[in-house]
Amino acid sequence: xxxxxxxxxxxxxxxxxxxxxxxxxxxxxxxxxxxxxxxxxxxxxxxxxxxxxxxxxxxxxxxxxxxxxxxxxxxxxxxxxxxxxxxxxxxxxxxxxxxxxxxxxxxxxxxxxxxxxxxxxxxxxxxxxxxxxxxxxxxxxxxxxxxxxxxxxxxxxxxxxxxxxxxxxxxxxxxxxxxxxxxxxxxxxxxxxxxxxxxxxxxxxxxxxxxxxxxxxxxxxxxxxxxxxxxxxxxxxxxxxxxxxxxxxxxxxxxxxxxxxxxxxxxxxxxxxxxxxxxxxxxxxxxxxxxxxxxxxxxxxxxxxxxxxxxxxxxxxxxxxxxxxxxxxxx
Amino acid sequence: xxxxxxxxxxxxxxxxxxxxxxxxxxxxxxxxxxxxxxxxxxxxxxxxxxxxxxxxxxxxxxxxxxxxxxxxxxxxxxxxxxxxxxxxxxxxxxxxxxxxxxxxxxxxxxxxxxxxxxxxxxxxxxxxxxxxxxxxxxxxxxxxxxxxxxxxxxxxxxxxxxxxxxxxxxxxxxxxxxxxxxxxxxxxxxxxxxxxxxxxxxxxxxxxxxxxxxxxxxxxxxxxxxxxxxxxxxxxxxxxxxxxxxxxxxxxxxxxxxxxxxxxxxxxxxxxxxxxxxxxxxxxxxxxxxxxxxxxxxxxxxxxxxxxxxxxxxxxxxxxxx
Lengths: 331, 322
Description:
The complex is a heterodimer of chains A (331) and B (322). Chain A has 331 residues and is an all-alpha fold.
């Protein structure tokens, strides 16, 4: 269990995250697999259809030049595109489900409770799920709004005067980037607040702002650093895995380069290479997402508890009535 | 009699060096997870090393482009070959700088800050008998035909075009004695110091404190994965496990360093010999009988190595227990 009496430094965050990974590994991997594997298989199939469709279209375009076009390919391409977007949607839903489950289990572990899989699953299929989706959509809307406002300001500037337009561009674009980064990090813990404290959508934003205020740079630095480290850790494991799952694509690529070396170019090889990308890409995506899901949410949770410690939320509470009666109880 | 006395003096010296390390670093004082320290060090230094190496390489390439007269020939194959030749020096310079600055130095810094001020003791940069070092080198040399054969089989099975191998070999092939000495420094000496201190000295040593004998298997596989070369993953992991085994048994960094140096030196020596027109040990020329024989010899020397290190380790164990 985490020591909630003193704020953590970077080493404590690493050490506590590592201990939590060990403690919750089996339950978290079950949750991640349950949500990501079905969604990932659909995604792999979606990718496969999409890339195959795209290559079919490219082939048809080449044949059209020779007057042998098959118009049916347009229909098949659109149906593939539909499946592709549906697969992405299912994957996003799976991502929310897995992250809620993992967050529930990990927060329980920090609080010294052993949250079972049943409890974690019931949390996923509750109002928390919709709140998390709502919170993310709202965040996307705010970010999108910032970008839109930036574009409008620049357009107004351009309409008034060309020099003013350039001036607005130079000032407004960096300002928008800074604002978006600021907002993303100040609301970084809204998701955990929803899952752990059952906060509503708007409450979760204010809760996260309250926690991050005064610690923004620290939060920013640690999140950037841990993201780089997690990416590296995932990449050393996923490199050989990608090699195995994307072998069809890689071997075709090798063949193509070798043919290029000997000046024997064949467009068929490009079609074959891209056509074989889909399934491998989907499979690698499942594995890397599962690996990432086992670490990143845990770092976020440890940082969330650290910020709560820094806001003195775990100070021992001396009960007033007990003081009066001469007994000292610390909660 | 004299030999036995010398051996006992060596063992006594080792025992004195191995016990009583004062673990006074911040990680130790705060009672944090030791396994987490090993992984944090591995991932932290790994990310720093690879990113810094890429940046140095980019900077060197930029300088080359800015101040050099780059004139690439026509034709895909010719251009690729010329590019590899051109990038050879910046790649080797980036490699040597990043190994010392972003692998060795951070490792020493981490040991000092997190664990102990007795850096040499912690990393086991300490006395070891010449017999153990010689045996480690012999085992590595005997196992090399097996490793080369295995990698040849993998390349054959996957039908990798020869051109890819020749491109990577081109980077490590010396065409003159001066170039050979430079390559020995970059490819053999530097990894034998930096990678050994990082992998064996820090990662394995730290993991050993919580996982015991399992540490050499884990570190060996991590060594293979860390190189990010999927085609060589199996052979690199085998070599990694072997080097880690030497470190685990000898309680000193010298045997694994010597073995690592020998392995890399032989690789560039073979490329150098092959570039001179000699096909010795090139892929197609590896005889299966030779592979089996040398592997059996390696197994035999491993048994001798186990016997040699057993006596000292029993003494160490008894002393630590006492």
